[in-house]
Specification:
The chain has a domain of 258 residues: 6 Propeller (Neuraminidase), CATH 2.120.10. The strands form nine sheets. It has a six-stranded mixed β-sheet with strand order 1-4-28-27-26-25, with no helix packed on it. Strands 5-6-7-8 form a four-stranded antiparallel β-sheet, with no helix packed on it. A four-stranded antiparallel β-sheet has the order 9-10-13-14, with no helix packed on it. The chain starts with 23 loop residues before the first strand and ends in a 9-residue tail after the last strand. The protein contains one helix and 31 strands. The longest helix is centred in the middle third of the chain and has 4 residues. The chain is mainly β.
């Protein structure tokens, strides 16, 4: 099965030590702020994606170097298919396959104890329908199950937060409703590093993608869940399609991406109609300050406008760098939203996870592809 994996961009150099130009392409001016005329970049759609590297710059022939570069360094002085979860004790990387509305697909696990790593299928007991987001929590895999129907291989499943014990493969439902209403999607999750409360986003993509048989019952929003008390709190209702979510290492800053530029029609009579992309729609990462022991967020501000497609998965490194899967790659940002590096792939990256003893191996995954990067940017230790 390894032959089906898309390997692209193995970089063992520390990114500050710039490798050969065939692998890393620096911009011709600071942040490529000035391009010679005439230049043009086509607008992405839901069928085609046009990254920065696809920009036509007639009077800069060297711009074409970007097409084959694994890393694009935007700041040389400072540079450095979904729901991936690393279980450190077992040294296994779990990831999901989103199912069609006909049933449960086996999920995937990468055994990092093998050399080379091996890929196999697994099913939790009971199975989880359409796990979309995931993280590690309390020694278990924490999944956002994004689909729901009355009959999924003989049982009813609904959008929920589920745990899986990586030692026994047993799955448990932690949360499946908001005062009797079904959640829409539960797209991604993050655990506050101090309180261990679970924060999650709830867009409406499951309806658009026919992963649920029930039209949305709640507005799109983001939530905080206290697993000790079972209480659920709305933390934000301002984003059109809240998606990726992550905390800074000390828990003082919360990041949530809005992928509302990819949107659809909600009409129970018509059912799922898919999605369309509007480049002028929301495709931002926002930041909030966090206070009151992780129970209050405030001071919302725009942090980053995705330069390609929409910012899907979001995670923060131990050093405080913000990473997001954005179209055909991963963007690495500093704590004020400056783009430092872009890891370029040949598939749409949706999410990623750090693995290894020092959490310096980054696994990327998305539409028909999985990649691995070895570098010195370290992931946060998850409990």
């Amino acid at each position: 099965m390894w032959s089906t994996w898309q390997w692209h961009g193995l970089c063992k150099q520390i990114c500050e030590n710039v490798p050969d130009r065939s692998r890393v392409a620096p911009s011709n001016s600071a942040q490529a702020a000035v391009l010679p005329y005439h230049f043009n970049r086509s607008i992405s759609s839901t069928k085609e994606e046009f990254d920065f590297k696809n920009t036509t710059v007639e009077n800069a022939p060297t711009f074409s170097l970007l097409s084959n570069a694994s890393f694009v360094v935007f700041d040389r002085e400072r540079a450095v298919h979904e729901a991936p979860i690393y279980a450190p004790e077992q040294n296994l990387l779990f990831l999901s396959q989103l199912a069609p509305p006909t049933g449960v697909l086996p999920q995937l696990v990468v055994n990092l104890n093998d050399d080379p790593p091996t890929l196999s299928e697994y099913l939790p007991n009971p199975p989880i329908y359409a796990p979309n987001g995931g993280t590690f929590w309390n020694g278990k895999l924490l999944f956002g199950a994004s689909g729901g129907a009355n009959d999924i291989e003989g049982s009813e499943q609904r959008v929920s937060i589920r745990t899986v014990d990586p030692a026994t493969n047993e799955s448990t439902v932690l949360l499946n409703n908001y005062y009797g209403f079904y959640f829409n999607n539960i797209d991604d999750l993050a655990v506050h590093p101090v309180t261990k409360d679970i924060f999650f986003t709830d867009p409406t993509y499951s309806w658009f993608n026919a992963l649920t048989d029930t039209a949305p019952q709640l507005p799109t929003a983001s939530y905080r869940f206290n697993p000790e008390t079972g209480a659920v709190f709305v933390i934000d209702d301002t984003l059109k399609q809240p998606n990726g979510i992550a905390f800074s290492p000390d828990g003082s800053t919360l990041y949530i991406s809005d992928t509302g530029a990819v949107n659809g029609l909600i009409d129970p009579k018509l059912g799922s109609q898919g999605v369309t992309f509007n480049t002028t729609g929301p495709r931002f990462i926002y930041a909030w300050d966090v206070a009151n022991n992780g129970t209050k967020i405030f001071n919302k501000r725009a942090f980053y406008l995705a330069q390609d497609w929409v910012p899907d998965g979001v995670k923060v490194s131990q050093e405080g760098l913000v990473l997001t899967g954005s179209g055909l790659g991963v963007d690495v940002l500093d704590d004020v939203g400056q783009l430092l590096i872009r890891i370029q792939t040949n598939y749409t990256v949706q999410n990623f996870a750090w693995t290894g003893e020092n959490l310096t191996t980054l696994w990327l995954m998305g539409n028909n592809g999985i990649s691995k990067v070895e570098w010195n940017i370290q992931g946060q230790t998850l409990t």
